[in-house]
Amino acid sequence: MADTFSRVASTLTYCVIYCPLIHSTAKHEDWKAAKLKEHKCAFEWLWLGFLKYKLPSSMYKKVLVILHDSILPNISNPTPMIDFLTAAYDVGGAISLLALNGLFVLIHQHNLDYPDFYKKLYSLLEPSVFHVKYRARFFHLANLFLSSTHLPVYLVAAFAKRLSAWPSRRHLLPCSCAADEACDDPYLMEEEDTTQCHALESSLWELQTLQKHYHPDVAKAAMAINKPLSQQEDDIRNRMEQDLKQKQSKTVPLEFDPATQLLQGSGGVGVLGLHFSLE
To answer: Which residue numbers delimit the CCAAT-binding factor domain (predicted)?
Structure first.
């Protein structure tokens, strides 16, 4: 089934873009802006009809991967894609991450108004996002969305606090602070509403705990907050593409023919029988 959809998608692109080129009798006057507009309308009509079907998961992801650079620029009116992208964005998981590219194009180039966009983006910031295949693309787009100067302070604070307050880092909090009310963090990690999570009332104390991390690279990166922030942003895309793998120890060679008795092996004489005897 997935192969069928893949062939159909390839055929759609080929027929709309390349098939008109095989008409050698076409004159130069035929290739005007009006003609190009007609081809874009046909391309849009074919893709909208194709996306109405329930696609397999693998094909669904492939369409979302190429949507922002191979489909949206080649259609005359990208607004009909809003429903498809918003529905994909609400699915969650890797599907939502892949839908960010298309939504980015519609928001910045076609003035798409999506009131719950940042609320959904905030909910995607979970520890599992570091283990998905498209994590580098996700954080790149999240950085672009959060770089807007029109965002309210509470929203930026909520994202910064959520990124620094992973539940797996709670063990780094000193035990003395557990019983001290002054160390209680007002930030609500489980709250999905950025206006109600009390991020502005908290602080990024987690970064100070990371300065005591056992790994020197992590501790060094956390120490950067003690210095004035530079105007140039650090590029961490290469780090996002790295995977941590546990080193596998080599297998220790064992005896090929295990002994079945203390003094006598399968060959008649065991290893101990060569040097010891009960007689």
So the answer is: 96-164, 180-222
